Amino acid sequence: MNKKPLKKKELTGMADRIKERRKSLNYTQEQLAERVGISVSSYTRIENAFQKPALDTIIKISQCLKISLDYIVFGEKSVEVDISSELMSAILDFSDKDKLRHTADVLQKLIKLKED
User: What's the pTM?
Assistant: First the structure.
């Protein structure tokens, strides 16, 4: 599978949206990092666009900030797909990293099929 790495511009946009939402909810970086379950330094690197977050981290951030994955990644709210927090929690609770990777691969293939 061809995975395109996020460009710096895309990573910065994602980081800006996360930071903006965190601030609007009056969370500190420390508070959000703790809720997401990552170190403050890892969270800071994500928010400053120095580190691309893992899929499970993006899902947890979206849950904590109560925003869609579409908005975090693409900057727009999707009318077509809105995965509920309950569904994301279920996926994370019952899946190990290998299963999450497989799920991500399947979703990427479905997206590619839709684009073709």
Answer: 0.62
pLDDT for 65-74, tens place per residue?
988 888 888 8
67 phi, psi to nearest 5 deg: -135, 160
Amino acid at 99: K
Residues with Cβ within 8 Å of 56's Cβ and at least 6 positions away in sequence, in order, are 92, 97, 100
Q: How far is CA 82 from CA 59, 73, 106, in A?
A: 12, 13, 17
Cβ within 8 Å of residue 43, ≥6 positions away: 29, 32, 33, 36
**Which domains does the chain show, CATH number per domain?**
8-115 (1.10.260.40)
